[in-house]
Each structure stands twice: as C-alpha cells, then as structure tokens.
Amino acid sequence: MLSRTPRTLVRPVAWRVISRSHSSHAAPPAFVPGASTSADTEVPYADATQASSVYLPQPKDASPLTAEQIRATTESPPLTPRQREIIDKIIRVDQAGELGANYIYRGQRAVFGLGSDRKTTQIVQDMWDGEKKHIATFDKLITQHDVRPTALYPLWKAMAFGLGAGTAILGKRAAMACTEAVETVIGEHYNDQLKDLKEEFPGHPSIPLLEKVLTEFRDDELHHLDTAVENESQQAPAYALLSAIIAGGCRLAIEATKRV
Ligand SMILES: [Fe+2]
Ligand SMILES: [Fe+2]
Q1: Could you tell me the CATH number of the domain that includes residue 103?
Q2: Helices 172-196 and 118-144, interaxial angle, to 10°?
Q3: Residue 145 within any structural domain of the chain
Q4: Which residues belong to the annotated binding site for Fe cation?
C-alpha cells in the first residue's frame, strides 16, 4: 500500500518573515448597499485603521479626509516615462490580479455553498470579503492614475472562476492548495512592486500612499496563504503538481497582463 507523508511545513519563502500584524479579517466588513466593483462584488466601507481606507466609502461617523489625503487620492503627479511605466504596470496588473482573486473565491464559494461543509464555506467567504476591499481600491487607483485596464479582463474572469470552482470540486484541500499557490505568487509580486517603488519618484503624497496600500494588501495575501496552510492545503492530492501548475499559470497571467 502506498503511504503519503503529510506535508505540513510551509516552504521558507523570504517575504513570509515580514511583519504580519495586519489582517483584513479582524472584524467582518460592512458593505455599501447597492455599490459594486469592477469584479461584480460589493464595495466595503472604509476601516480607518487601514491605509486603503482613504479609497473606500467612509462610514457616517468617520472624520472627513484631510486636504493631504484628498490630494493623495485624487491627483496623479507628473512622471518620467520610466516612472509612468512602473506605475502603469503596478496598477494594471494588480487590478487584474484582484479581479482574478475575487473570481477564484466566487467559484470556490459557489461550489462549497452547495455542500454541507459550512466551516470551509465561511473561510472562503471571509477571504473573498478581503479581496473585495482590494479590487474596490484598485478601481479607484486605476482612475486616479489614468491607467488603462487590461484587455484580458473577460478572459481572467472566466479562467479564475473555473480555477476556483474546479479546485473546490476536487475538495477542500485542493481549494486551499489553489489559494496557497495563488497567494504566494501574488504576495511575492506585491513585494517586487514595493522594490520598484523604491526608485526615485516625485514628492507627491500619492506615491507613499500607494506604497502603504501595497504593503497592506501584501500582508492580507500573506494572511490568506497562512489560512490555506492551516486548512491542510499541503495535504491536497497531487499537491506539488497542482501548486506548480497554478503558480506557473499565475506568473504567465501576470506577464501577459503587463503587456496587454
Ligand atoms: Fe487580493
Ligand atoms: Fe488574497
């Protein structure tokens, strides 16, 4: 009889050591009635403790944004062609990536919602709710910095939903292996972008804000990755193969989105 060694240790990825104090799931998010994002999801209200809150609808009891915050969220500074290229790629790829994440969790939620595993359904729902904040923020950033969205939007929606639903049909562990692979690539990708932003940029408040938002979202993805590992992603059938295929697909999608 074949036996399988449970793989419960997380691979030592360098960016995992970065501070993990932030989590988008500290409290259930509240959503703006009737408002929807470009990924066809609800728009969450701002949580004042998070950098991205300045891009989200403010709750009634929130203090108004300061003049500096309004500048940071509505103006795009003049950029050199090189700086422009960096900002364009960051925002286009991240908006597309967050669209994909929303549709992966939508697909997983649709499948788990049909079954009796309420715990996994709730875990997937919570991660999806975190992704709603990400896409709502990038919808604002893409307008603010006048970045062209990817032309591959409809393709990514269909592929991401299929990936989410397909892995959920294979079971909870396969769904979590999908989350682990995707969030690892996206987390590393956010980290690479943060390095790109270390190049010289104009002294405009939108740039440090973008840096804070990317840091917040990278930490959210790290939290999703940890959730997947805690929920037995590494015990999925054909884990190594599944992870390699999904991570490879994500990297290809990122490269395609940078260009198209
Ligand atoms: Fe995300
Ligand atoms: Fe995520």
Answers
A1: 1.20.1260
A2: 20
A3: yes
A4: 98, 131, 134, 183, 221, 224
